[in-house]
Design brief:
The structure is a single chain. The protein is of the alpha+beta class. The chain is built from 5 helices and 6 strands, in the order H-E-E-E-E-E-E-H-H-H-H.
Length: 163
């Protein structure tokens, strides 16, 4: 019986890739940061079914193991969303409100605002003009025919007798 590490080496397959200029390699959608000396070089990647780490071979030299960088999120861990400008502003306002906290003694000397509103009566003024757009009757038959013609967008004489 062999060890787990030795068993994982059986399931590894070589794959030739070119390392990006930022010294990163992508395998199965996961990015790995490799040695900066390998940037732009064509290397052999050793990645297996049971591996979560990457091994790199260039020439006669082996590098690794490399862990994923910014890859898939592990279980039971969550990325937080970046706060929007309005959320950042709300956080700044909350921090400012905590700094400007007033003592209870300062608030007790000021009369409550609700007392001054109890004696206040709003000024009301009724609307006296009739609404000219919602009249139920027309002044004459001719005004009614003109309104129908304007609504249809054509003269009434061009309509068929049935209409």
């Amino acid at each position: 019986m062999c060890s787990w590490e030795r068993f994982c080496t059986f399931a590894r397959e070589p794959e030739t890739r070119k390392v990006a200029v930022d010294a990163q390699v992508s395998v199965a959608g996961v990015r790995y940061d490799v040695d900066p000396d390998l940037a732009g070089e064509t290397v052999t990647l050793w990645f297996g079914l049971y591996d979560d780490q990457l091994y790199v071979e260039h020439g006669e030299r082996r590098y690794g193991p490399y862990a994923p960088s910014g890859g898939p999120i592990p279980l039971h861990r969550y990325r937080s969303f970046k706060k929007t400008r309005s959320q950042q502003r709300a956080d700044r306002l909350e921090a400012l409100a905590e700094q400007l906290a007033l003592p209870q003694a300062a608030l007790s000397e000021v009369p409550p605002l609700s007392a001054s509103f109890t004696t206040f009566a709003p000024v009301t003024q009724p609307f006296t003009d009739p609404d000219p757009f919602h009249e139920l009757t027309f002044r004459s038959v001719l005004d009614a025919k003109r309104a129908i013609a304007d609504h249809l967008g054509m003269p009434l004489a061009k309509l068929a007798p049935d209409q």
